[in-house]
Design a protein that fits this description.
Type Iii Antifreeze Protein Isoform Hplc 12, two-stranded antiparallel sheet, single chain, five-stranded antiparallel sheet, 2 domains, 9 strands
């Protein structure tokens, strides 16, 4: 019951915030910025597509933290977005949830073994055998769902694989077929996973 109440409260706050911006926009029209507003309900986990967005001009000071239409398109809703709601940047996920038949496995990494990948990119997964001096590829073109830092913070998407703010990746969430997850989990527990950039790029 408390979870339902929390969802209702969140949606109500989102609507109130939207109404405040609309009201303020009518009073201040000089220094504005383009932001995205939904034209339909977008449930959590669904891709945000162009047909469910519109561009709206709002006062710059009220647009802080809101995504532009270009930033929102192609991302996934981390929370449900109601129709007519302005889209917060933090409500968007670059890669979304695992596809049917797949699971997300987090593997520990450092700067080199992470390939400095970001959500939405693709990697090849190597399992390192130090004794044999080998690191064969066991999975190819694996989609990266999440990248987290040492404090568990989600590292944002950036251009050319450069993580903003100097944060270093500590774990990468990979979308893998369910039947391949146990082997990857075992390798991850030994810190024997090494990632390389996939040429496909997805």
């Amino acid at each position: 019951m408390s979870r339902k109440v929390g969802i209702v409260v969140s949606l109500a706050l989102a609507l109130i915030f939207t109404l405040l911006i609309v009201s303020a926009a009518g009073k201040e029209s000089r220094d504005t910025v383009r932001v995205a507003r939904t034209t339909a309900f977008i449930p959590v986990g669904e891709e945000v597509t162009a047909d469910k967005l519109e561009a709206v001009e709002v006062p710059r000071k009220l647009g802080a933290g809101l995504a532009s239409p270009e930033e929102a398109r192609g991302k996934f809703a981390a929370v449900s977005l109601v129709k007519g709601q302005f889209v917060p940047a933090e409500a968007l996920d670059a890669a979304g949830a695992p596809r049917p038949g797949h699971v997300e496995v987090f593997v520990p990494v450092d700067v080199s073994s992470s390939a400095m990948v970001l959500p939405g990119q693709a990697v090849n997964v190597h399992i390192v055998n130090k004794d044999a001096g080998q690191a064969p590829v066991v999975l190819e073109n694996v989609r990266v769902l999440h990248v987290v830092g040492r404090q568990g913070e989600s590292l944002p998407q950036a251009k050319e694989g450069i993580v903003p703010g100097g944060s270093e990746p500590a774990a990468v969430g990979l979308e893998v077929p369910g039947d391949r997850a146990p082997g990857l989990v075992a390798a991850a527990s030994r810190k024997a996973v090494y990632l390389t950039r996939s040429k496909s790029g997805l």
